[in-house]
Amino acid sequence: MNTELNFTKRTLDNLPNPLKRTRFRDSGGSGSVAGLGLDVSPTGKKTFRYEKKVNGKNIKVTLGKYPDITVEQARNLAKEQAQKIADGVNPNEEKRKQRDHINFDALFEIYTATLKLDVQAKLRRPRSLELSNTLYSLHVAPVIGKNSVIDFTRQDAKTFLNGLLAKYGYSRHNHALTLLKSMYNRAELEVNPFKDIKKIDEALHRRTRTLSGEELERLLDSLNYEDQIYRDFVLVLLFTGQRKSNVISMQWNQINFETKTWTIPSENTKNKKLHAVPLSLPVVELLTERKNKANNRESFVFPSHRSSTGHISDKGSKGGFWRRIIERADLYDSQNKANNFRMHDLRRTLATNIVNQGGSIQAISKLLGHSNISITSDVYAHLAIDNVRTELESTTLGMLGENKALNKVIDLAKIKSDILSLSEYDRQELASFIQSLSA
């Protein structure tokens, strides 16, 4: 394999994945820079590095990943490193000194800068950047934002995460752990105190709340007292099984009335894949009615002129439409928030009803847009097993019922035993009753 080539976007995009880690060198082009290389792993990961030999010793500087940075950017960075080395500065030593004084706030700036590039390249959703900013500013920065990264130990990491766990629960703990690991990885720090810390198994704490038949009736009755837009929103949420964020931002250009499908763009889905949702007849009728009444200039199915997003929103707090709905339906517990029925529980309610009516785990997984069927199985497999058990019992009893001779022997023995246990008076009464039937 020729490892010397002129770096261009087309050339790098078409590089085959090698069997082992391979370094390609920028050569032969009018803009090629000596010492600029691209390391390509068997998985296809591509990393720009600049290499220069000084006094018999190689100095290798990581510049960034392709396509996060372009060929032109990599060449400019390589020239900058070449100039530093020519001035007697070792870029790696300089970077190491900077890391010795970096704190978590600075680390988060590096993280957001690289994450923005991923968003621009549509490798991550804009929502990911928004959630990271919220999580860091509310729960990380106030506690460890000014702490030196170099002095932060694994024990410090565990203490911080345990504090989140005790105060906010496993979900906040796991999200913060993921964020902090990514912050270290994106800054390419050699030591990551969060690296070997495991997430808390969500299966041990997973919420299983669904609506019973009687509770569903109360919820639907409560919706009759809401404005049409909120009533329709909750019904679409219930009858599609999709996430609140997707339903609340549903747009008309995503709806195909001919095929009765709703296509959620990949940038709006959790697994970053385009998701086609089948629409049942009640949902199609509801959307058709909304479409007929909608302003042609409105892009959102559930628009709001008071919201900065252009669509309705609700945090579930006092004064919000969801709080009103569940309070009227007696699904709100002011003493224990864990007992409150949540919007996401509607998604689980639909899936549970589908399984209970004989639907397959595979169908549920596809509808809910789970990235892996094992996620669906963890939550709903026991319901499917209950269905199988019911069918098995019915089949087994049917098989036994086909053996009429066996049933006859069993029945006669029981009748004889019952008669012998009767008193003399009761036997005479039974005999009189039988005679009356034949009369």
TrEMBL record:
Residues 206-393 form the Tyr recombinase domain. GO terms for molecular function: DNA binding. InterPro entries: DNA_brk_join_enz (IPR011010), Integrase-like_cat_sf (IPR013762), Integrase_catalytic (IPR002104), Integrase_DNA-bd_sf (IPR038488), Integrase_DNA_bind_dom (IPR025166), Integrase_recombinase_N (IPR010998), Phage_Integrase (IPR050808). The keyword Ion transport does not apply. Gene3D superfamilies: 1.10.150.130, Integrase, DNA-binding domain (3.30.160.390), Intergrase catalytic core (1.10.443.10). GO terms for biological process: DNA integration; DNA recombination. Keywords: DNA integration, DNA recombination, DNA-binding. Belongs to the 'phage' integrase family. This is Integrase. It comes from Vibrio superstes NBRC 103154.
